[in-house]
Amino acid sequence: MRPGLQALGYAASRVALAALAGVLAGAILGRPWLGMALALAGYLLWHLVMLYRVEWWLQHRSVADPPEARGVWGTVISLIARLHRRKRFHKLRFVQLMRQLQQSTAALPNGVVILNEQREIVWFNRMAARLLGLRPASDLGVRIENLLREPAFGHYLHKGDYANPVVVRRSSPQDSYLSVQLVAYGDGQQLLLAADVSRQMRLEAVRRDFVANASHELRSPLTVIAGYLETLGQDPALDEDFAAPIAEMRRQAARMNSIVRDLLELSRLEETDERAGGEPLDVPALMALLRRDVLARPVHPGEVRVRNDSQAALIGKESEIHSAFANLVDNAAKYTPPEGALEMRWWSDRDGGHFSVTDTGIGIPAEHLPRLTERFYRVDPGRSRATGGSGLGLAIVKHVLQRHGAELEIQSTPGKGSTFTCHFPPERIAAEALSDTP
Ligand code: ADP
User: Fold this and answer.
1) Cα 276 to averaged position of ligand 1 atoms, centre (Å)
2) How far does the centroid of ligand 1 lie from the alpha carbon of residue 392, in Å?
3) Residue 436 has pLDDT above 50, yes or no
4) Are residues 10 and 60 in the same domain?
5) CA–CA distance, 51 with 73 (Å, rounded to integer)
6) How many CA atoms lie within 13 Å of 285's alpha carbon, on the beta-carbon side?
7) Is 438 inside any structural domain?
8) What is the span of the domain harbouring residue 151?
9) Among 58, 79, 103, where does a domain finish?
10) pLDDT reported for residue 63
């Protein structure tokens, strides 16, 4: 039988027993009913006393022991005591867990900041305090953008794409770099993760400087070699046997020259990760210029079209945009046979401005597309070298577009052709064409 039911049966038998005893005692005095009433009243009084004692214990349970009782009250008290014990056990475990969690996040080598829906600071660990200069006394409840005021972070917040961290350069300590990332969780809360990447950035700068210096140093000797080879190649007195090797040496020197030129350009683009400034550029004029360049190549696609579907000008750095577009057009010309076609197109819509280069050339198998913009990545190294490619063209395009907040989209079907499209955001578009502006 369940303890509750057992106690109830016990209590009922106690009532019956008390009533019987009362009746018997009353009968001796000739007042059985009075005896029973008195006995039941006494029993009720005992219950009231127990109720009072249990209530008093519940109010002072942290200092007082449970009252001693048997029967139904004993069962009730032991059930309550068991509930309390269980509650205390869970509370203790929760507090322990919280403490462990706090200790482990405090020991993390990365900064962690908990932000609420309004991006106000709710909590941060010791590393976050050190890296971001946060103070518990004054910075709790403050919006993170008011404390981390670097433009790169503001831009990151504004963009709303938190899939990757952003590298923020801090003025103090001098030349320090932080990698910062927001991670959404729960109901609109966010976790800000910060790590010190100053060492990686310094190594990256050393690598960049090395490539830039090496390319720079190579330039002068290469110019001399190319110059002599050119003179030799044009010398009518040159032995027939040397004509072919010298022509090959000239080709290779030209390739080395283009590699060095592209490496220098990449280093220059990498020098700052700041956004490129901008002046309104006349894209149709640029397309006309690029078309002329294609037609001037000794071998080029038979059909080279230009389509201008926008009155808008593109806001960007002219030398960089020219270089990026020229690289795309150059590739299309290189990888398209003379019987093929090449089309450049410029258009704008609500999403911004778009420049595409479509060719009917050899195309690119899908598995190569994700890696195409890596340095020196070539689908067919032999073919690229034969066409004088440096393998750096698309890396330059990617960098230029990044600096303009733009993206490169590549569509390609092997054997049919490719389309490379640059998508510029709306803020890179000047509504009126250059010719319309005074
Ligand atoms: P490269 O100087 O070798 O052309 P890029 O970085 O410009 O180097 O291009 C990388 C690779 O992408 C090329 O080697 C080539 O295999 C492929 N590629 C680029 N553009 C095209 C295109 N329009 N058609 C076919 N393949 C292309």
Assistant:
1) 25
2) 9
3) no
4) yes
5) 9
6) 10
7) no
8) 109-196
9) 103
10) 82
Which residues are within 8 A (CB) of 303 and not within 5 positions of it... i.e. 6 or more apart? 340, 341, 342
Enter the pTM of the model. 0.68
My answer on whether 90 and 209 are in the same domain is no
23-49 per-position pLDDT tens digit: 999 998 888 899 999 999 998 999 899
What separation in Å is there between the alpha carbon of 378 and the centre of ligand 1?
A: 6
Cβ of residue 335 lying under 6 Å from some atom of ligand 1:
yes
Q: Strand 341-349 to strand 303-309: parallel, antiparallel, or no bridges (unpaired)?
A: parallel
Q: Give one word for 414, left, alpha or beta, with left for phi > 0 and alpha for psi -120 to 50.
A: beta
Distance CA 126, CA 133 (A): 10
- Identify the domain boundary among 153, 169, 196: 196
> Across the strands, what pairs with 346?
308, 355
Residue 421 DSSP one-character state: E
Please identify, by atom number, the ligand 1 atom nearest to the C-alpha of residue 336.
24
Q: What's 340-405 look like in SS3?
A: CEEEEEEEEECCEEEEEEEECCCCCCHHHHHHCCCCCCCCCHHHHHHCCCCCCHHHHHHHHHHHCC
Nearest ligand 1 atom to alpha carbon 390: 2
Amino acid sitting at position 148:
L
* Residue 428 near residue 315, CB atoms below 8 Å: yes
